[in-house]
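In this section we walk through a basic example: taking a raw amino acid sequence and producing a predicted 3D structure, encoded as discrete structure tokens. The instruction is simple. Fold the sequence below.
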Amino acid sequence: MLENEDAPLAVAKLSLPYKLRYMAATLDWALQVAGLNGASAGEANQLRLALEETLSFLINSYHDAEPWELICVDFTLKNDNIAEFCIANEGPPIHQERIPRYDPQDGSGSDMDGLWYFVALKAVDDIKFNNLGNRGWQVVITKRLEQGLGGEATAPQAHASGTGTTPAFTVRYAKPEDAGELIDITYDTYRYTHPNEVFYHESRLAEAIAKEEIIFTVVESGGTIACTDSISVLPYAPGCGYVGALMSRRAYRKTRAVLHLLNENKRYMESNPLGLDLYTSTTVTAHTGSQKAGEKIGFKPSGLFLNEGSVINFRNMRATDGIRESFVVYVYISKKPTLETMYLPEAHHDVVRPILAHMGCEATLSAECCKELPADTVLDVKTMSIEKSAQVTLVQIGKDWAESLRRKFFTLRGEGIQAITVLVPAFRPLPENLDGEMARLNGLFTGLTPLSTSDYYLVYCILNEPMDFDRIQVASPLMQALKEHIMQSYRQMSSELL
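The resulting token sequence is shown next.
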């Protein structure tokens, strides 16, 4: 799912050393970039003045800066015509409450050391100082512009079939000849970081559409594809369809086009023309908007994939800070689950039981272990090279299953894989001490993923770096309970490894 309410209209960046001699060039850049993005001459000069006073203060506060240290200045124009200069500073801490207050009415008692702040704040709407912890400090200067980009439309004008200024939308399914335009919209959304390489090859994409390997729902406005989503049947799970790759042209991201798309997805899954057991999808945890949209059309949450997604370079959206994305696993149940007994460690029964009930699965939970395991372990490995992630399924759990996983992890990491998810079949008895052996591999139980009416899998995420659970935002109370359960397991695993 795609949520883009806060996407900036323009972004520009500049870095400079902690030397006053670079100020003139920096301020000339600031004046130009503000003017190019809709600031009047007066507004641009006011922004320049605030930036000059703030940068002078920061540079003068850090006399012993190393030659290689830089101040980074980002300019952003937001959709509500707010111009913003964001200054990243790794100099001494800034305590806003300690900045002396200059009072022009008090000629004797006023502190001249605060004059710079008085001048800067008078020129703009607000100046904030943010403590970023071990990433230093940030100063954010904001000013609302009267005209901005001169009223440039964020969505195209109505076509002949529409009325007023609202675009008219039609919904259909993509044909092979749409492949070229679908590649364009892929770039318009992801640049070149979409995880499915087929989306960048016109002939391969046209063939996939012709064979119904990928079914694209498209929303059109005046003959132009405004947004699209896809459904693909998983080759390794013929009863399961994957819903994903929601993409929208920038001009239509603040229109009702995406709503038309979601409604058509709901209608398609309800009619279920392919006769699938279920549909699955993943939504980001950087925000909860896409999760709420998914639940609104009938998706049920079943688990979390921690750190599985690589950094996506969304076009016309702020870049992330380089940290991998975690996902919520969602399932749309088309046919009643037939699983009678689900096997999982008893420690997870209480958190899993309401998740199953929400999906309509009436399976009995059991912690029974298999007494006799076969000699050999069989693994199925799927790698996603662009995302640098891998999914390892324990097809057959042999006596050497833990050592087999350890060897496979070593190989995958040597190939540059950064995130590994292990799927353990929950439809047959488990190996003994599953959680303990997984913990020794840095693996945590993070929920479920069903692939048919009876084939449910336990999800274990292998963590290669510390987890920041504050970054994971979940909308569902079921996922909040699961997140807290995972955090408790993580703390326990971390203490045992110390």
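Looking at the output, two observations stand out. The chain has eleven helices and 19 strands. Residues 477-497 form the longest helix (21 residues). In the next section we compare this with other chains.
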